[in-house]
Amino acid sequence: MRIFRKIHTKLNWSGRRYFGVIVGFLALGYIASAVFQVLKPLPSGLNYAGPLRHANVQFLADQSYVNSKGEQQQDQQIFDQIFTLIAEAQTTIVIDMFLFNQQVGESKLEYRPLSQALTEALVFKRLENPNIEIKFITDPINSVYGGIAPEQYRELRRVGVDVIETNLVPLRASNPAWSGFWYLCCQGIGNNAETGWLANPFGAEKVTIRSYLNLFNFKANHRKTIVVDTMAGWKTLVTSANPHDGSARHSNVALLVEGPTAVDILNTENVVAKMSASESPIVVVGNVGAALDLPQVQVLTEGAIYQAVQNLIESAKPNDQIDLAMFYLSERKIIQQLIDAQQRGVKLRVLLDPNKDAFGREKNGIPNRQVASELHDAGVDVRWCNTQGEQCHGKMIVKSNAQHSEMILGSANFTARNLKNYNLETDLRVIGSTQQAVFVDATDYFNAAWSNQDGRQASVDYAKFADDSKLKYWTYRFMEWSGMSTF
After folding, report:
1. What count of other Cβ atoms lies within 10 Å of the Cβ of residue 187?
2. Distance, CA of 115 to CA of 245 (rounded, Å)
3. Of 73, 89, 176, whose CA–CA distance to 133 is shortest?
4. Is 147 left (phi over 0), alpha (psi -120 to 50) or beta?
5. What is the pLDDT of residue 285?
6. Can the peptide bond before residue 367 be classed as cis, meaning omega within 30 degrees of 0?
7. How many angstroms separate the CA atoms of 468 and 464, rounded?
8. What pLDDT does residue 129 have?
9. Is the four-CA dihedral 430, 432, 433, 435 of positive or negative sign?
10. Would you state the pLDDT for residue 359?
11. Mutual orientation of helices 368-377 and 470-482 as an angle, nearest 10°?
12. Whole-angstrom Cα distance, residue 326 to residue 398?
């Protein structure tokens, strides 16, 4: 204390000046924290681009549409295939799924109970084969960041399934304005699932204020993968679909792959498990190849997806076809690349979700309607999915000509948060002959939605949801730039 008194006497500062210095140091600390959270090193093993491997690969889709009688219909393949994979598994199942809960928001529609169906399939498998190793990796949004204790977690853990909530702390901050403060003051404060008193933003249970404060970081493990070993070898499925009841009516896409590519996925999931103080099986494979006349498949995660998408668009030549089906499209460089491709003679078709439905709540169309206006003004053909309360949730881009095709498909929306090493994401890149079944099926799926084939009203004209509001456009631009958004 004597030292401080001497310093005070020597400085002879007023109280206001002391206050200004303290505020200055706090502001400097906040800025330093925000910058560090954006630029800090990624955990080793993220931002991964695997080897190209020849493999059997199959395109799968869930599609919602309106039939000729005006009734909404769903054709679903993805989770039926996931349940088949679980049944086929011999010693190992590793699943990583973003949304895994029963919440449907304010929607009054009927939903397939996907979360409980997946829980029951895994519980049955574990009881049938007590020696099988099952790892279930998911995002902490499902426990509202520790604010509730999900029943599905309890059911799985009761039979010995290792449920791993992803530790998001090592990830970079996509919303630095908030995260700069959060990681200075609050990240060490524990949550309690028994003491909630605030309304849950997703369901009926009460949560603590800690759940909200953590939510505002907008970090996520957004992956959707499953890997199993079967009598026929390793298999993996990568998708845009969630085992979430409120998402059960969404349109989605997936790829099912056999062989060493599945092991590449497995090892990327081990990175997430280790980051979250757990482990998943590690398998080492060499360049074990399938027949050379099969497509080649490459695993991409995080920023590697961004680079591959840019390469796909930039390499498109005049008269090549690019078809893009996307739930959220907002990343500025990709938008400009699409416009540039249009101007150099590439044929483009862009099918977007109108961003009007979110589990019974009505959205304002940001960002897709503002991006669509920009693309439409540049001459790009744009259509909207004909959603009726559900979402057009697929994430897929395909480039093709008469001989060759390339496709990138998986969990990643084309937004800054999904592509620039913020979220955890997994996509697959497939290249090969345009006549191979995976490309034929993907193109048939897109054509059916684009052209409303067989009387199925799956899409509507651009004019249906056109929105050239400058206010909304600049709102979207600010949200994309700042990270203060949910897309």
Report:
1. 12
2. 6
3. 89
4. alpha
5. 58
6. yes
7. 12
8. 97
9. negative
10. 83
11. 110
12. 11
DSSP string, 279-325: -------------TTSPEEEEEETHHHHHHHHHHHHT--TT-EEEEE
Contacts of 207 (CB under 8 A, 6+ apart): 144, 147, 148, 196, 198, 199, 200, 201
Nearest 5°: phi and psi at 353?
Answer: -70, 140
Query: What parts of the chain have a pLDDT lower than 70?
Result: 1-15, 18, 280-289
DSSP for 141-188, written as a single string: GGGTTTTS--HHHHHHHHTT-EEEE---TTSPPS-HHHHHHHHHHTTT
pTM higher than 0.85 for the full model?
yes
How many of the other CB atoms lie within 10 Å of CB of 341?
23
Report the candidate in 102, 423, 148 with the shortest Cα–Cα distance to residue 242.
102
Domains of the chain: 53-267 (3.30.870.10), 295-482 (3.30.870.10)
Q: Locate tokens 């099986």: which residue?
A: 281
Question: How many Cβ atoms are within 10 Å of 288's Cβ, its own excluded?
Answer: 11
Whole-angstrom Cα distance, residue 183 to residue 266? Answer: 31
What is the model's pLDDT at position 341? 98
How many residues can be counted in the chain? 487
| 414-to-173, 204, 272, 308, 471 alpha-carbon distances in Å | 17, 32, 22, 12, 22
Return the CA Rg of the chain.
24
Residue identified by tokens 């994430």 is: 395
**Which strand (E) or helix (H) includes residue 416?**
helix 416-419
376 within 8 A of 462, measured Cβ to Cβ = yes
105, burial (CB in 10 Å: exposed 0-12, middle 13-18, buried 19+):
middle
Report whether 311 contacts 49 (CB < 8 A): no
Residues in contact with 250: Cβ distance below 8 Å, sequence separation at least 6, in sequence order = 62, 64, 241, 390, 391, 392, 393
Neighbouring residues of 382: CB distance < 8 A, sequence distance ≥ 6: 350, 351, 352, 372, 375, 376, 462
Q: Is 128 exposed, middle or buried (0-12, 13-18, 19+ CB in 10 A)?
A: exposed
User: What is the reported pLDDT for 5?
Assistant: 64
269, 268, 266, 238: which is closest to 252 by C-alpha?
Answer: 238
- Displacement of CA 374 from its chain's centroid (Å): 24
The 10 Å Cβ neighbour count of residue 248 is 24
Q: How far apart are the first and last CA of the chain?
A: 51
pLDDT score at 393: 97
